[in-house]
Amino acid sequence: MQINQVRKAVIPAAGFGTRLFPATKVVKKELFPIIDQHGRAKPVILAIVEEAISAGITEVGIVVQPDDLGVFVDLFKNPPTPELWQKLSLSNQEYSQYLQELGKKVVFLTQQEQAGYGHAVFCAKDWVENEPFLLMLGDHVYKSDLDKSCAQQIVELYAQVNQSVVSLTTMPAAIINKAGCVTGVWQEFNSLMTITQLAEKPSIDYARQHLRVEGMAEDEFLCVFGLYVLTPKIFDYLADSIHKNFRYRGEFQLTTCLDQLCQAEGMTGYVMKGKCFDTGLPDTYRQTLIDFS
């Protein structure tokens, strides 16, 4: 029986951000500013950490490149200089103190080699140990349609089903080659499903043949929303993939290992009640600035 309390979150943030070059030559994409619903400017990574904390997470592990460690430590661990502190408004001084408290829940894990999303997740293995964990993308922020945050929705569902949970959203066929996609059998239509297969960035032809979902429009498919709660068994499949040098487009991917986990332990899909904002592309980052707040 798996432990059903999720205490830890993993956020890979060690990529190069090539799609946002040349801005990412000087600023990590996870540090790009967004404006939250309170009108506060904050780095993307801070909004993601706050999302994790909203779900009851008590420890957040951020996977970073060794050379980037300093700037992340400065954000979460170091107080402002006295000169800056004096110039802050009272509200921002209070937020700065809150940020220091938040930073006590953050640890940094390093990825020595940038070898893909699956490899970055694997770098958290020793820190996660033998626990389920919340996995979040380092460049996605979320807005829930419910009183519960998106992260809270999926963490609470894991406690109920006691198996790995992947959040889902509907995508048109034209863009599924950019996402991980799933198929399965509905437990509750358009809400909960028993996943039977996951595929990484499938072609339209493959999806039409293998990934159709009952009750959905002909050219609509279920794709990964960007939040997961996974059992530690995922690290066994990632380790095997890395050991065998099994790469997809030159990198170690997560989705193929998720499919192995699904076949071994079962997996629940959850159609997220909320919206996902991708800050990792110029057009979607610009739209996030308009819509997120």
Can you walk me through this structure?
This protein has one domain (8-291): Spore Coat Polysaccharide Biosynthesis Protein SpsA, Chain A, CATH 3.90.550.10. With 293 residues, the chain is an alpha/beta fold. The chain is globular and about 60 Å long. Helix 9 (234-243) crosses helix 10 (255-265). The strands form 3 sheets. The protein has a 5-stranded mixed β-barrel with strand order 8-11-9-10-12. Strands 2-3 form a two-stranded antiparallel sheet. Helices cover 34% and strands 26% of the residues. It is built from 11 helices and 13 strands. The model has no long low-confidence stretch (mean pLDDT 93).
CATH topology: Spore Coat Polysaccharide Biosynthesis Protein SpsA, Chain A
The Rg value, from CA coordinates, equals 19 Å
- The CATH architecture comes to Alpha-Beta Complex
What percent of the residues sit in helical stretches (DSSP H or I)? 25-40%
Helical segment count: 11
- The CATH class assignment is Alpha Beta
> Largest sheet, described in full?
5 strands, mixed, barrel
SSE order, as H and E?
EEEHEHHHEHHEEHEEEHEHHEEH
Distance between the termini: 41 Å
Low-confidence stretches are none
Strands, total number: 13
